[in-house]
C-alpha cells in the first residue's frame, strides 16, 4: 500500500541542479497570457475550439510532441509547467516544491489548472496533473485527452540516460518503477485516445500518430460495416444507411443474409506497437486492441475498460486468462478453458453480453435466442446471467437444445447455468430443427412485430456470426504470440504456426485477423475431425456438401458441415467482391456445392493448410500425451495435436489452441485413458478423473455447476414451431411484464 507521501507529483531532479529541466528545455521567458489569448482566437486546430491535451508519464515526450503537433496545426502550444504553473506562481516548479513541500504541491498544481482556460490549443500536461481529479475534469470539458503510452521499461531507460537520480516524493524503499506503475491508473482514468509509443520512436512519428488518432476520434462515420454479400454499386447507393459497430452488435445478421465486416478492414499495428505490449497483462492487451477495433463513439474507452475488467475478472480461474504452456518439442498449448464454462467461447461470451447491453436502445426489452448442440448454450447463459441487475430486467436469454442430442455433462451444464434471466429448453428433435426454427422466427415479421407492439420486446441473436464474437478471439491469438516473445522462446518478428480445431471457422478466422493486424503468423492450420469438409475445401477449393451427412464424434464443437464464418474470409480474399460471395453461397444453398477460382484458391493456400483426424487417432493422442507428460488433452485439442504432428515442418514454434477442458468430455477421456469402469453419472465421472491427479486439474466451475441441486429442472417441448413460439411468449410475459 502506498502512503499519501508517495502520491506526490513526479518531478525530475538531476545531479546538476534542482531547477534544471530533464524532459524539456526551460523557456527563456514565459509567453505573456495576453499574447496567448490573442493567438487562441486567431487559430483553428484540427478539433476546432477543442484542445488537444497530451498526457503521460515523465519522459514520455509530451512537450516535444506538443510543439510538433502545434506546428503542424498552426495553433498555440501551451506547456502547463512553463506557461501556466510558473507564470501563476511567479517562480519555478522546483522553487514551488521547496516552498510548499510535497504534500501541498499537488493541490496547488490542481488549483492552477482550475483557473486555467484555453481553446483551440495543444496543451502538454505535467506528469502529475492527472492525479488531481477536479483539475482534470475541468480540462476535459474543452479538450480531447491523448495518452502517450510509453512502456515503463522505456521510461526508466530514458530517465537513466538523463542522469535522473531521484524523483520528488519517492520514499525510501519504493522504487521508481513501482511509482510509475502506480501512476498508470490515473492516466487510464482520464484519456480519450491512447497512442502507443514504444522503443526509440521519434517525436515526429509520435506527433503523426497523435494527429491520426485525433482524426479518427473526430470521424466515427469512417468506421462503417458492410455485408459480405453487398455489391460495391449497392453500397454507393446506400450511403444513408451506414451500419456502425453498435448496429451490427444488435442486428447480428445483415439484411441480405450476409455477415457484417468492417468496410475499411481491421487496424494494423506496427512492430513497435506490438512490442510495447510484450510486458503487458492480458487485460491491458485486450484494452489496447479493442480500442483500435471499436470506435469510442460506439463504446468510450472508460466503458470498454469496465467491460474488460468485468469479463476477465474473478470468473477466470487463471490470472493469465489465456496462458501458453509448453507441451513438447516445438509445440505449445494455448489454454482457452479457464473461463466459467470451460471452453474458448467464454472469451467472447463473458464480454459480448456487456457490449450488447451498452449498445442496445434503452427504450426496448430484448430476448436473446440461442440454438446450440454443445458449448455455446452454457457460455451464453452464464455470460448474460452476469449482467447488472438493471440490465437483466431488460435482457433475457432462451437457449434451445436437442433434448437427446447433447452429452449428459453438456446438458447438466446448460441446465445448471439457468438464472433469473436465462433459461434452457430441451426440444424433442435435433440441432438442425432448433437452428432452423430460430431462423424462421427471426424472419417472421408478423410474429416479431407482434412481440414488439404487444410486449415492447425485440429478438436478438448471440451466435458466432455476430461480429462482436470474433474480436475477443483476436486478442488471445495475439497475446499467445507476445507471451512466447516474453518468455524468450522467440524474438519478435520470428514466425509461428497456429493449429486450431475448426468447425464454424470463427476461431481460425480470428487468428487470420491477428495475422493481418501484424502478428507474425506463418500458417494457420485447420484441424478437422471426420466431418472434414473444410479440409477438402482448403486442399481443393471445392466446397461440396452433396452426399455428406454429419457424423457425431468425440469432438462435437467441430461437428459442422456448413462453416458460416468462412464467408467472411472469402469476402476478404475476393477483395470485398460481395456479388461473388453472394453467388457462391446461393450456389451452396441451392446446389450444395461451389468451387473457388484458381487465383482465390492460391490466395487461400498462402494462409491456410488443413488436415483431419479419425476418432481412433483422437483417443490415441490423448493416451499418448498423458502417458508421456501427465497432461490430459480434451478431444478437440487432440484433433489439433494429431493434425499438427502431421503438417508441421518443425522450423518454428506451433501454437495449438486448446479450446475446451477435458472435464466436459469425461466419457471419451476415460475411454482414451483405458479406464474400464465408466459411470453414467457426470459428477461421478469427474470425481473419477480427479482421482488420477491430472494436469490440469478437473475444472472447478464445471464441478460446482454439476453439484447444484435441481439440475434436472428444465422445460421440454415438442418439435413444433407454434410450441416454441408459445414458450417465447410465455417467457416474455413472465420476465418483462
Automatic annotation (TrEMBL):
Pathway: Amino-acid biosynthesis
Domain Threonine synthase N-terminal, first and last residues per copy: 239-312
Keyword Electron transport: no
An example Gene Ontology CC term for this record: cytoplasm
GO-annotated biological processes: amino acid biosynthetic process
Highest taxon listed in the record's lineage: Eukaryota
N6-(pyridoxal phosphate)lysine: residues carrying this PTM: 345
Needed cofactors: pyridoxal 5'-phosphate
Family matches, as Pfam families: SKI, Thr_synth_N
Keywords attached to this entry: Amino-acid biosynthesis, Pyridoxal phosphate
Gene Ontology MF: a single term: pyridoxal phosphate binding
Record-stated family: Belongs to the threonine synthase family.
HAMAP family: Shikimate_kinase (MF_00109)
Name of protein: Threonine synthase-like 1
Organism per entry: Chlamydotis macqueenii (Macqueen's bustard)
Amino acid at each position: 500500500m502506498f502512503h499519501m507521501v508517495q502520491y506526490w507529483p513526479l518531478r525530475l531532479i538531476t545531479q546538476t541542479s534542482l531547477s534544471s529541466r530533464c524532459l524539456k528545455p526551460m523557456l527563456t521567458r514565459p509567453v505573456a497570457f495576453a499574447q496567448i489569448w490573442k493567438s487562441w482566437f486567431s487559430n483553428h486546430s484540427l478539433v476546432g475550439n477543442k484542445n488537444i491535451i497530451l498526457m503521460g508519464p515523465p519522459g514520455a515526450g509530451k512537450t516535444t510532441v506538443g510543439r510538433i503537433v502545434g506546428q503542424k496545426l498552426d495553433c498555440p502550444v501551451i506547456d502547463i509547467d512553463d506557461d501556466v504553473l510558473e507564470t501563476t506562481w511567479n517562480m519555478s516548479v522546483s522553487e514551488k516544491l521547496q516552498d510548499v513541500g510535497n504534500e501541498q504541491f499537488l493541490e496547488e498544481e490542481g488549483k492552477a489548472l482550475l483557473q486555467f482556460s484555453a481553446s483551440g490549443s495543444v496543451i502538454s500536461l505535467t506528469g502529475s496533473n492527472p492525479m488531481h481529479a477536479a483539475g482534470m475534469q475541468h480540462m476535459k470539458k474543452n479538450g480531447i485527452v491523448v495518452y502517450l503510452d510509453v512502456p515503463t521499461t522505456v521510461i526508466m531507460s530514458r530517465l537513466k540516460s538523463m542522469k535522473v537520480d531521484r524523483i520528488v516524493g519517492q520514499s525510501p524503499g519504493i522504487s521508481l518503477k513501482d511509482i510509475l506503475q502506480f501512476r498508470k491508473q490515473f492516466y487510464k482514468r482520464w484519456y480519450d485516445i491512447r497512442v502507443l509509443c514504444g522503443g526509440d520512436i521519434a517525436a515526429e512519428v509520435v506527433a503523426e500518430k497523435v494527429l491520426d488518432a485525433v482524426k479518427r476520434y473526430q470521424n466515427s462515420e469512417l468506421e462503417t460495416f458492410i455485408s459480405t454479400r453487398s455489391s460495391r454499386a449497392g453500397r454507393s447507393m446506400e450511403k444513408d444507411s451506414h451500419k456502425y459497430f453498435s448496429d451490427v452488435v444488435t442486428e447480428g445478421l445483415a439484411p441480405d443474409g450476409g455477415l457484417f465486416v468492417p468496410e475499411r478492414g481491421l487496424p494494423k499495428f506496427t512492430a513497435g506497437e506490438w512490442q510495447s505490449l510484450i510486458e503487458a497483462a492480458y487485460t491491458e492487451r485486450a484494452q489496447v486492441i479493442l480500442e483500435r477495433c471499436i470506435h469510442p463513439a460506439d463504446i468510450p474507452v472508460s466503458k470498454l475498460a469496465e467491460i474488460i475488467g468485468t469479463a476477465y475478472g474473478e470468473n477466470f480461474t487463471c490470472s493469465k486468462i489465456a496462458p501458453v504452456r509448453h507441451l513438447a518439442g516445438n509445440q505449445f498449448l494455448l489454454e482457452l478453458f479457464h473461463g466459467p464454462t470451460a471452453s474458448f467461447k467464454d472469451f467472447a461470451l463473458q464480454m459480448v453480453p456487456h457490449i450488447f447491453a451498452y449498445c442496445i436502445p434503452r427504450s426496448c426489452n430484448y430476448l436473446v435466442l440461442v440454438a446450440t448442440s454443445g458449448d455455446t448454450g452454457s457460455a451464453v447463459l452464464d455470460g448474460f446471467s452476469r449482467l447488472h441487475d438493471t440490465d437483466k430486467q431488460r435482457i433475457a436469454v432462451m437457449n434451445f437444445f436437442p433434448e437427446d442430442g447433447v452429452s449428459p455433462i453438456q446438458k447438466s451444464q446448460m441446465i445448471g447455468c439457468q438464472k433469473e434471466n436465462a433459461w434452457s429448453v430441451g426440444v424433442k428433435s435435433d440441432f438442425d430443427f432448433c437452428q432452423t426454427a430460430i431462423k424462421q422466427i427471426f424472419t417472421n415479421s408478423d410474429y416479431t412485430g407482434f412481440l414488439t407492439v404487444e410486449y415492447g420486446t425485440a429478438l436478438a441473436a448471440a451466435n458466432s456470426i455476430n461480429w462482436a464474437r470474433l474480436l475477443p478471439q483476436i486478442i488471445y491469438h495475439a497475446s499467445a504470440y507476445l507471451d512466447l516473445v516474453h518468455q524468450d522462446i522467440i524474438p519478435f518478428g520470428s514466425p509461428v504456426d497456429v493449429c486450431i480445431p475448426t468447425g464454424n471457422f470463427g476461431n481460425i478466422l480470428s487468428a487470420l485477423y491477428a495475422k493481418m493486424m501484424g502478428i507474425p503468423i506463418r500458417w494457420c492450420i485447420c484441424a478437422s475431425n471426420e466431418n472434414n469438409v473444410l479440409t477438402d475445401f482448403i486442399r481443393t477449393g471445392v466446397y461440396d456438401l452433396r452426399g455428406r451427412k454429419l457424423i457425431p464424434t468425440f469432438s462435437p464443437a467441430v461437428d459442422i458441415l456448413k462453416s458460416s464464418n468462412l464467408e467472411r474470409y472469402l469476402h476478404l480474399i475476393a477483395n470485398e467482391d460481395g456479388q461473388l460471395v453472394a453467388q457462391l453461397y446461393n450456389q451452396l444453398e441451392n446446389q450444395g456445392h461451389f468451387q473457388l477460382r484458381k487465383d482465390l484458391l492460391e490466395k487461400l493456400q498462402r494462409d491456410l493448410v488443413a488436415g483431419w483426424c479419425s476418432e481412433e487417432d483422437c483417443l490415441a493422442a490423448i493416451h499418448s500425451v498423458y502417458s508421456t507428460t501427465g497432461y490430459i488433452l480434451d478431444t478437440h485439442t487432440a484433433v489439433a495435436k494429431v493434425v499438427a504432428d502431421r503438417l508441421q515442418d518443425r522450423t518454428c514454434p506451433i501454437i495449438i489452441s486448446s479450446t475446451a477442458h477435458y472435464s466436459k468430455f469425461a466419457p471419451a477421456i476415460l475411454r482414451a485413458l483405458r479406464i474400464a469402469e465408466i459411470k453414467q453419472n457426470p459428477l461421478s465421472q469427474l470425481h473419477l478423473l480427479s482421482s488420477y491427479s491430472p494436469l490440469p486439474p478437473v475444472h472447478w466451475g464445471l464441478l460446482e455447476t454439476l453439484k447444484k441441486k435441481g439440475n434436472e429442472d428444465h422445460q421440454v417441448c415438442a418439435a413444433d414451431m407454434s410450441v416454441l413460439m408459445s414458450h417465447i411468449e410465455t417467457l416474455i410475459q413472465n420476465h418483462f411484464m
